[in-house]
Amino acid sequence: MTHTEIFSIDGKPRFDLAHFLSCAGAGRRIVHCDPKGALFSQGDSADSVFYLQSGRLKVTVVSATGKEAAIALLFAGDFIGEDSLAGTARHRSATVTAITPSYAMKIARSEMIRVMHDEHALSDLFLSRLLARSIRTQADLVDQLFNSSEKRLARLLLSMAEYGELGDPAKFIPPITQEALAEMVGTTRSRVSFFMNRFRKLGFIDYNGRIQVHKSLLKTVLLDHLPEHVSHAPRVANKSAVSSDRSMSTLCA
Question: Which of 182, 194, 252, 253 is deepest in the core (most CB within 10 A)?
Answer without folding.
Answer: 194
